[in-house]
Design goal:
Its EC number is 3.1.11.5. With 594 residues, the protein is α/β, with parallel strands linked by helices. It has 3 domains: 6-112; 129-327, Rossmann fold, CATH 3.40.50; 338-573, Rossmann fold, CATH 3.40.50. Helices cover 41% and strands 15% of the residues. The chain has a 6-stranded parallel beta sheet, with helices on both faces. Helix 20 links the parallel strand 19 (520-525) and strand 20. Helix 1 runs antiparallel to helix 2 (34-53) and helix 14 packs antiparallel against helix 15. The two termini are 44 Å apart.
Length: 594
């Protein structure tokens, strides 16, 4: 069984084969010998498969191997050097389909090499600029103890976000990224009430949470201030902050025109670990010369689904140390609590400590945190779904309130590493449909009480990838209507026939859950054999991302972990392979290619 749909693998294989054939034809047209054209085509197929399947921007080569020697020759001699260029030829303005970087033992498609060079240049240039001065008013806002004091590391982050051309803040769940962002926004608006600020995130769900979290805190302070409490925050700055609406990064860039295109004094991007190289490159090109850039994320989470490991590379780059702040104090997970200790052990790659925590917890009657090391059978999966989803969601009443039902579904989810196979998201959703759909409707595409998630952006309907909805039957007409949360918190109703591509949302992949939080959460970590040949897919980043989606609160919180011990502990030992060369390039992009 595979980690993705079979047709996706087929599409990737077909794309790699097509690129291979096109490369061979291009080489022949350039006058290359048939043997050289075929050798180059084979290497390009490997490159394409690596970019598509392994989420890398390049193919790493071994200097002692045949491919490396062939590319060294190809990049040095005509006519092959018309196909495979070098960093030097790139810097001179040459256009070649491939770039062979012998110094880093890597082969690139031209587009990805150019994106990496330009992205690294822009980020490095931003980091080299001096920060703006911090005024007395800003200091007063930063140091304020009410409504709650900031930690010293949060204060450092606020100063950076409010004044530095580039601010990179990494922190796990509960470390206060939203809290410090609010203070920084108040600092900015206190200095310039007309400042243009863009809030963005890679997915619709993450953008919605960003807006909601900032607005909720600002509204609370404003309400208390109007009731007579004293805060050093200008009312106008609070109102401006409340009015900010986060967008998906794709939407923000699509709304823009030209290069640079974003009309902003400051661009703040949350969940930055989800940004792949092509999207980061688009952001860098669209950023105005005098605009500040703020990247918020968690370096320990999964990397982007697309090629490139941008946020991790930025956090690891020593030359950017002055632009980075790491938050380590979490208010969500106590260091002595079960989940806090488990998350810490996983991040450290400490399999022994992880095993000890699992063993210590397995024998307890802890009401919130539960473990199941039983063999993952169909019967066990059914039992987990029935335990996870409360009766109100298993059998949604005919007169259910759309807002209340949607809020309940937003707080409950089963997560799995896989998409396909018996323990994948598709099969789990099918299993939940059979368990929870009204009698006689389990084969229907839609049914009353069905949670759904949008899989493709539809701007006309104002629905975006990751938006969660719930299907309810209108009592008056009997028609099925999907209800979604609108931009201002209102509930929008859309007939199911008008919905863009979507799927059931009882279960989802861990990748798709990034940026979300659930108070009732089941995490499935099956045997490695369920992933077929992709056993290295399981990593500590994958497990850490899954368990930190839990947020204790609300009614009857529950964290349920169904796991295969051998695979879970092996995953803790395995770090996601990240071969980013983002800041390893010496070639500068010539003006002719910009």
């Amino acid at each position: 069984m595979n980690t993705t749909e079979p047709n996706q693998h087929a599409q990737r294989s077909a794309a790699a084969a097509w690129l291979s054939e096109e490369t061979a034809a291009l080489a022949r047209d350039a006058g290359c010998a048939e043997s050289d054209a075929e050798a180059l085509a084979k290497i390009v197929r490997k490159l394409a498969e690596t970019v598509c399947g392994n989420r890398e921007t390049h193919l790493r080569l071994v200097p002692a191997r045949e491919d490396f020697a062939f590319l060294e020759k190809a990049a040095a001699e005509p006519p092959l050097n018309r196909i495979a260029g070098t960093p030097a030829s790139y810097a001179a303005g040459a256009l070649t389909p491939l770039i062979f970087d012998a110094g880093n033992a890597a082969l690139y498609f031209f587009r990805h090499y150019r994106q990496e060079c330009e992205t690294a240049e822009k980020i490095s240039a931003l980091a080299a600029l001096p920060p703006a001065s911090v005024s007395e008013k800003m200091r007063e806002i930063i140091e304020a103890d009410a409504p709650f004091p900031l930690s010293e590391e949060q204060k450092r982050a606020v100063r950076a976000v409010a004044s530095a051309p580039l601010a990179v803040v990494s922190g796990g769940p509960g470390t206060g990224k939203t809290t410090l962002l609010l203070r920084a926004l108040l600092c900015i608006f206190s200095e310039n009430p007309d400042a243009e600020i863009i809030l963005a995130a890679p997915t619709g769900k993450a953008a919605s949470r960003m807006s909601e979290s900032v607005r909720k805190q600002a509204d609370e302070i404003l309400r208390r201030a109007e009731a007579g409490e004293s805060f050093p925050f200008p009312r106008r700055a609070l109102r401006k902050t409340c009015a900010l609406e986060a967008r998906t990064l794709h939407r923000a860039l699509a709304d823009a025109r030209g290069v640079p295109a974003l009309e902003a004094d400051c661009v703040v991007v949350d969940e930055a670990s989800m940004i792949d190289q092509p999207l980061m490159h688009r952001l860098m090109r669209a950023l105005p010369p005098r605009a500040r850039l703020v990247l918020l994320g968690d370096k320990n989470q999964l990397d982007s689904v697309g090629p490139g490991h941008v946020f991790g590379a930025i956090c690891a780059e020593e030359k950017l140390s002055g632009a980075k702040t790491e938050l380590t104090e979490s208010r969500r997970f106590s260091e002595t609590g079960t989940l806090g200790r488990l998350a810490g052990a996983v991040v450290r790659g400490d399999a022994r400590a992880t095993a000890e925590i699992l063993d210590a917890t397995a024998g307890t009657a802890e009401s919130v945190f539960r473990l199941s090391e039983e063999k993952i059978t169909p019967e066990r999966l059914d039992a987990a779904l029935l335990e996870l989803f409360p009766e109100k969601l298993r059998r949604v009443s005919a007169d259910a309130d759309p807002r209340e039902t949607l809020e309940l579904f937003e707080s409950v989810r089963m997560l799995t590493p896989l998409r396909g196979g018996e323990t994948g998201a598709d099969a789990l959703n099918a299993r939940a449909r059979r368990l929870f759909s009204p009698p006689g409707s389990d084969a229907a595409e839609h049914f009353h009480g069905q949670p759904i998630i949008i899989a493709r952006n539809a701007r006309q309907e104002q629905l975006f990838n990751g938006d969660l909805g719930v299907v309810l039957r209108e009592r008056r007409t009997g028609t099925l209507v999907a209800h979604f949360r609108g931009g201002n918190g209102e509930i929008r109703a859309i007939p199911v026939g008008l919905l863009p591509e979507h799927e059931s949302a009882y279960a989802m992949s861990i990748h798709k859950a990034q940026g979300s939080e659930f108070s009732r959460l089941a995490v499935l970590f099956p045997p490695a054999s369920d992933a077929g040949t992709h056993t290295d897919f399981f990593s500590r980043q994958l497990l850490y991302t899954a368990i930190t989606r839990f947020r204790e609160g609300g009614n009857a919180p529950l964290f349920l972990l169904l796991f295969d011990r051998e695979n879970l502990l092996e995953a803790v030992r395995r770090e996601s392979a990240s071969n980013s060369l983002l800041f390893a390039h010496t070639a500068q992009t010539p003006n002719s290619l910009r």
